[in-house]
Structure formats: C-alpha cells, structure tokens
Amino acid sequence: MAPEEIVATAEGNRRFSRLLRGVREGRRYLVTAHGRPIGRLLPAAGEDEIDHRVREAAKRELLRRLENQPVSDVGPWTRDELYER
Questions:
Q1: Which of 31, 46, 76, 78 lies in the 20 to 30 Å Cα band around 37?
Q2: CA–CA dist 49, 56 (Å, integer)
Q3: Is 11 exposed, middle or buried (0-12, 13-18, 19+ CB in 10 A)?
Q4: What is the pTM of this model?
C-alpha cells in the first residue's frame, strides 16, 4: 500500500485534476482542513487484501457476538410510539 500524501483542501481545489491522475496511478491522499483530516482520495478498485481480511474478521466477530446475545422482547408497539411528538 502506498503511503498517504497530506493535501490541504485549498491545495486540493487548485490541483484536483492532478490529484485524480495520482489516484489513477495508485497514490493515496489524506485531505485536511485547518490541519484536521476530513477525507481521503484513494483508488476505488483493488481493495487492499489486508483491509478486506480485517473487515471480514470484524464482521465475523460481530455476528458471533450478536448470536450469543439474548433476544429482547419489547412487546407490541405502534409506529406512532416510535416517534416523539
């Protein structure tokens, strides 16, 4: 995985086309506003195998935990009861 380059929003606006060419070539960018991360530009295709495995493992663990929890019976309710007035 390529390291992320940090790009401020103003700089990103000025060179957006160049950033997209970089993304097409496999580069990754961390976009910041006032020094704080707000988003990422990265290739859509070719998900990193490690990221995929971590997500799948997290999903399996979540499903395992949910299967082991007792079912809660909250009784009957109406649609109006779900919304505060």
A1: 46
A2: 11
A3: middle
A4: 0.52
Is there a contact between 47 and 22 (Cβ–Cβ < 8 Å)? Answer: no
> Dihedral of the CA atoms 65, 69, 71, 72 (nearest 10)?
-110
Contact between 19 and 42 under an 8 Å Cβ cutoff? The reply is no
Residue with token string 């790009």: 7
Question: Over the chain (85 residues), what is each successive 10-residue block's mean pLDDT?
Answer: 87 95 93 95 74 88 92 82 75
Return the HEC string of 8-77: EHHHHHHCHHHHHHHHHCCCEEEEEECCEEEEEECCCCCCCHHHHHHHHHHHHHHHHHHHHCCCCCCCCC
